[in-house]
Amino acid sequence: MLYNIFIDPFVQMAQMPDLLVQTLWEGLVSGVLYALIALGFVLIFKASGVFNFAQGIMVVFSALTLVGFYEKFSAYGFSGHTAAFVALILTAGVMFVLAMLIERVVLRPLVNQPDIILFMATFGITYMLIGFGEMVFGGDPKQMIASELFLPSGSVDVEMLGGMVSFQKIDIAAAVIASVMIAGLALFFQKTRIGRALRAVADSHKAALSVGISLNQIWVIVWFAAGLVALVTGIMWGARSDVSFALEIVALKALPVLVLGGLTSVPGAIVGGLIIGIGEKLGEFYWGPLLGGGIESWFAYAIALLFLLYRPQGLFGDKIIERI
Amino acid sequence: MSLKNWLYALSAAASLTLPAVHDAQAEDSIYVPLFTYRTGPFAGSGTPIANGMHDYLTLLNERDGGIGGVKLIVEECETGYDTKKGLECYESVKPKKPVIVNPWSTGITLPLIPKAAVDKIPVLSMAYGLSASAKGDTFPWIFNPPATYWDGFTQILQYIATQEGGGVEKLKGKKIGYIYLDASFGREPLPLIEQLSKELGFEAKLYPVAAADMQNQSSQWLSVRRDKPDYMILYGWGALNATAVKEAVKTNYPMEKFISIWWPSEDDAKGAGDGAKGFKTLNWHAVGADFPLLADIQKHVVDAGKSQVSGKDKVGQVLYNRGIYNSMLIAEAIRKAQEITGNKVVTGEDVRRGLEGLNIDEARLKEIGLEGFTSAVKLSCADHNGHFSTFVQSWNGTTYEKVSDYIAPLSDKVGPLLDADAKAYAEKNAPWPARSEACDAS
């Protein structure tokens, strides 16, 4: 048994290095996509102190809206790349309107309420979006308009290390787009005036208000940014499978990333995502068979908890010191 | 009289009136609840089935005025494929005296098995649920025609053996992968797989997929790449099927060696593009809408705006027709119950007898408008399943085509295991009541 746990997986890695590279690649792609989901949570938490339970359904809602718009256009004979990008812009518009509505209807009336009230309000947003989404789009799974959005298909097969490593073009695109998006958001929040305002709000609502920063405006921007992140996430996950309400549970995969990376750190979401993504793939592939397989979902939490033993605030989270 | 007193008076009047209304309703109608899921992660599979079930029963109301002149009250309860919600649905419909329940989830079916006999409500778990519930002597209130998950597994094994050029002895030394939803449904055939792998000499490789990872199966398919199974068998549901087909294509797994139990839909294969051609599933009924009954549904239900289908092309798709088949069993069981009892308005107890006497032969299929749609169905007091043959259908890029003859299950292997499993269930749930229900001569 000890051999199977401590020796055999490493023997396998050495004997089949091509599969190790493939596993690391799959983990990297998953990790980047988890990081993207986690980023949606982090953005909103940083700005408003709210753990946005609705982030998962925002992924579904944005992807369904995109495909829904495109299907409507197609029904009127307007299809192809132009229609897809018009649908994309309109979907971004819908996410902006959603952000405004959430700020106006949910957040503004709840200013100064305990965090748990705001957290519960995001449950309300979740169920409202589920109901509304099902009413408008139905429960049927839909195909993501990947090729219409110039997302590639097929694979790049590379002979290496005595075997073949297959890189799916959609996965390469997902990794690149997610990385660009994460870098763009990081730059936006580090280098722009709005970004600085966001960080001020994150540090202290009252102090930010006292220097004239509009809390309402910041909330709309942040929820809109989270909406765009959800849209990109929905496109990428949708292209890998299909667009259905099952995407909602993909968001659960972000939870161990947040445990690991901390709720307030953008770099934490990225590094956490990569650690969880690669860790769970290695765990499932090399150690999963010892435990009957299917360990991926809890193995991610095991990794996160292991890290927390040494850094309870998460990898990049702020250490909270409360004087009593 | 003050406002408060008026309110008291009104509520008292309502409390006296409402039961009367309910009784009146019960006297001239038959209540058929449908447990469905048009929402949640499994809606992709649940919606077409719900539409098929609903449209067939609606047709009977619209075209024939119900069954035997008695209107059906058809009511959907949304379970979201969630066992807890399914049990809530059951408790909410129970006071309305349903004549049958269709859980549409193995997870929901399992806790209903002990309740059915107590509440006198037969459970129809059509080709899902507990395989051993086929044993009518142990489970007089549970029905799972036309084949169990265990039957299905042996039918796939036989198809594989045929591809290898012989009988099941050809499976010896083969490596067979089993990728499945890690829930009650997917775990159901595991004891059979363990037993048959020993008896037939094949190596079984298991690839469970948690519900949270349905759309994230790269680890499982990396393992497939490492293990190189000769054939892959899929027991998936919802988004799991579509993702599995996509991942198989991505991994370059030969699609002609990838065979599923009977649940994948057209959408599950379509998403993987041309690479999915050759993907196979079991089935026991036709695909397509070229049947008189489906034409009537189109005319009386879909065109009349009484269906929830999102497009006319959805009528006749594989899971829509699965819903049609399910409702055919319900309707014919009610009809049989009316025939046995002589009553027009039947109860759950009557419909249980109707299910045991179910005999839908070719002539009856023609009368229904489903000639050539499926093979005859006959149940009995002892056999609540029938263990009927199924065939293999293959995805051609547009639709599923039948590519095999009908394959009977390996009854000599499955039968004793079902007997043992039914016995073990009764012992585990002791004191399990001995069958007290009389058997009508059929």
Automatic annotation (TrEMBL), chain A:
Coiled-coil region(s):
none
What keywords would UniProt list here? Answer: Amino-acid transport, Cell membrane, Membrane, Transmembrane, Transmembrane helix, Transport
Question: So where does this one cross the membrane?
Answer: 20-43, 50-70, 82-102, 114-132, 170-189, 218-237, 257-278, 290-310
CDD domains in UniProt: TM_PBP1_LivH_like
Example GO BP: amino acid transport
Q: Which Pfam families match?
A: BPD_transp_2
UniProt-recorded Gene Ontology molecular function terms: transmembrane transporter activity
Q: Where in the cell is it found?
A: Cell membrane
> Which family does the record assign?
Belongs to the binding-protein-dependent transport system permease family. LivHM subfamily.
Q: Please report the name of this protein according to its UniProt entry.
A: Branched-chain amino acid ABC transporter permease
Q: Which organism is it from?
A: Aminobacter anthyllidis
TrEMBL record, chain B:
Q: Does the keyword Signal apply?
A: yes
Which keywords fit this entry according to its UniProt record?
Signal
The membrane-spanning stretches of this chain are none
> Which CDD domains does this entry report, sorted A to Z?
PBP1_ABC_ligand_binding-like
Start and end residues of each Leucine-binding protein domain: 30-396
Q: Keyword Ribosomal protein: yes or no?
A: no
Q: Which N-terminal residues, if any, form the signal peptide?
A: 1-26
Give the InterPro entries listed for this entry: Leu-bd, Peripla_BP_I
Q: Which family does it belong to?
A: Belongs to the leucine-binding protein family.
Q: What is this protein called?
A: ABC transporter substrate-binding protein
Organism encoding this protein: Aminobacter anthyllidis
